[in-house]
Records
---
Amino acid sequence: MYVPPPNAMTEADVAAFLGTHPAGRLVTVGPDGRPDATLLPVLVSGSTVRAHLARANDHWRRIAPGSPGLLVVSGAGAYVSPGWYASKQEHGRVVPTWNYSEVQLRGSVTVHDDPDWVLDVVTGLTERHEGGRERPWAVTDAPPAYVRGQLRAIVGVELVVEHASGVEGVEGKAKLSQNRSDADRRGVVAGLRTEGDPAAYRVADEMERALER
């Protein structure tokens, strides 16, 4: 991923982003050279990403043990009109762009066709998404025989982030008009808030937080 210095996320930024974006697109390449991609809810712990795939999804069968993979975790994105820039009135040398945030994790991927391993992942994902609810649902609320049957319909997948010398295993990019003046950036924030689009509002919020730093 191309990450200009002003757009680079810090390690803390990446951790916070992954904490609030619980799904990512796993991309691998099969033995025939054809890429496969599946959007998955994920658990990220240190340098390990765990998830599960439907057994009926051929993606997992095309993953050789230890093969390279890429997990793309995307945040909100929005079109930026050059008409929002204060500098448009000054010189007119402005063009459209797209603001967004994204984290990419690269590493080796392994499939785990093991019910106990998969149960641990399913339990962790459930606890993550149910934990803040008034009456959280737990895997143990379902009959054990039913859970075992459901586990047979999925397989586990694990990505271990690489830490090889000279290789970026984790990259985070927040493209939030950091190359523009504060006046231009505030103009974009105001413009995004007129779009009536939830994604545009989220990008505006992120830009405001960046401006306050």
---
Amino acid sequence: MIINKFFPYLMIAPTILILGILIFYPLVVGIRLSFFDYNLMFPIRPFVGLKNYFLLLGDRRFIFLLWNTILFALLSVAFSTLLGLLIALFLNRRSRVTGVYRAISFIPWITPSVVVSFVFAWIFNKSFSPVNSFLVRVSLIDEPVAFLGDFAVKFLGLSLPFWSVLAVRTWTQFPFKMVMFLAALQTIPQDLYDAAKIDGANKIQQFRFVTFPYILPVATLVISLSLIWNLALFDINFLMTSGGPYDLTNVVPIFIYNEAFVHYRMGLASAAGAIILIFASIIGLIYLRLMRREVSL
């Protein structure tokens, strides 16, 4: 009887132990370091309380990077979610080549971000960019454009390097949304669409009253997870531009990397990570609240 009572806990104990070692322990240590003037170059590491947080929140550059991080996250999620939904709606139709399109559409998700970053850095290079060659041939531009360096060119108040990196982030993220939306679309009974057609509903009305309610829980999950992932996204921005030019594509994760492994200021880097953790926790709490409301309804 005792074994039966504790058997479920014994089954999940290895998972909890691994999570504790790999996630929770580093998380606690990182938060603890944020309250110390912890510099790897000096043996004395005094407790400073909230000084690191005040230094960051009083630094205009860090506030700009924090805004950049949030803006990258919001726009990446918005564009990749919309693109993923449109492609999922297209692939949900029955066709002989649908399976091929699904496989091709999933390539950006499974391609390593290092490969993606270097390929697009080559594509956007001013000297030998195929995009520039095409635009010059069709007379859309007079001379090659430095997509990752021309900070003077702006669209909707955002620089060209920002939009270039954002395009790559969107391209790598939409397949995940596409697969999630496609799975949700395939659970919708065809009878509901048939009934809507009988009632005279057009395509837009069918999407609004049939499709949208079914995919809304999936959309909420996808958007919440994507926002959290994008707040911590480091590799694409770092590999393509290293945050330049003039911090226009810089984000807090790159700031954390530089503070920790270039300047060895572990305390300040931990405080910056804790601030990102606060934003991610807020998103998680909002998602849990929405899910509870959905369950109660």
---
Amino acid sequence: MLLASLCLAGCFSPSSDLPTGEDAYRIMPPAEAGAMQPSYRIGVLDVLSVRVFQEPELSFEQIAVDASGTINFPLVGEITAVGRTPIELSEEIERGLGTRFIRDPQVVVGVVSSALQRVVVEGSVSEPGVYEIAGTSSLLESIARAKGLTEVAVDDEVIVFREINGERQGAVFNVRHIREGRVPDPQILGGDRIVVGFSAVRGVYRDFLRAAPLFNVFTRF
């Protein structure tokens, strides 16, 4: 009965139609060593910090970018934040303050939290959830944020979903080979979704082992 269950459990693979191997890396390549990461661009619902040198009343630990992509800054008014880098937004606030109010203002904008820089890790990991990343991450780093794979995880078929040019795409990676250094660790970007599959074969076997001591007790009577 156990053998039959194991055979039936291992017959279906939901990732069978997705690219693997070199095809997967063409869609979602690893980060190039020493490559400069693109500057972060502010997104809707990001939370920013703004500090104006020697102007505590104009310095804020948190300012949220609203749904329209703007912030409302004292003495300056409504400013478009979405699509700009923190440096570009700093310069825009400096221009607004320097026009009439402050001589040679110095402004520093930081990103406290980013709604776009989040990765979803789900499936057979210890702590599935949504995790923030700083700029970019890797597949192994993202799984580590979720406290690693469970004992029934399929480590040779981990799926990464990503929106590329408005189209949802997926690719399958072998985490076991990545850990062993046999293949590169793909780059993970904000907005990616990582799905670690459940091995029904391992699950059935695990449940069998857990039930075995109880089974032995009943067979004694």
---
Amino acid sequence: MTNGKKTIDDFVAKFHGLGGDTAPKVVPYTFDDVVAGLNSVVANDWATFLRTRLDSNSYHAPLGGLENGGYKLTYTDKPNAWSTLEDQQSESFNFWYSIGLHANKAGNVSDVLKGGVADKSGIGPGMKIVAVNGRAYTPDVLKAAIHDAKDSGPAAELITLNTGYYKVVKLDYHEGERYPTLERVPSVPDRLNDILKPATK
């Protein structure tokens, strides 16, 4: 709205700088204070803007900030650097955007996407994936099965263990591995990188 003349830094300076340069102290604030602070930088219906995002039950996260920042969300069959780092640190593997689950090296399922392929197939948190297409489970074996099922390939077949009971589960999924990535939109200024730049060296 200001064509780059003002940024979120202007709001931060005004909002956190209330009362001048002081020693650290607790300063309570309200929703209306945030709205007033934003309006002091640039006039807008900030209350509606914020309430829409805070109160939304939308299935998808709001993407307007990314799109206005010069990027769009896309998916690729290769993990991005952040996904790879997260997998290494958590020792969990992210199948969230394909079959809709997180599982560790041992096959223990820690989370399942509600309404996703795994959820619809009867897999839930706390279950264990024992085998994939007749082979002992490893993350790479499951990745290969998802890859092989792409397009018209055979559905991946898992053997799961839950409270002492084994169950064969078929995953009706044929879109291959999917990982989120941000794709630059050249026609929009790269505001996201400007926002992320360090304020000091």
